[in-house]
Amino acid sequence: MFSKEESALLRKDFWTSFGKSFPRKWLLYNTKIKGFSFKFVAERKQAMVCLDIENPDELVNLLYYDQMLSLKTLLENELPEVIFNDEYELESGKIIHRIYVPYEGKFSVYNKNSWRDCFEFYMETMPKFELFFYEYEDIIKNI
Question: InterPro entries, from UniProt (predicted)?
Answer without folding.
Answer: DUF4268 (IPR025364)
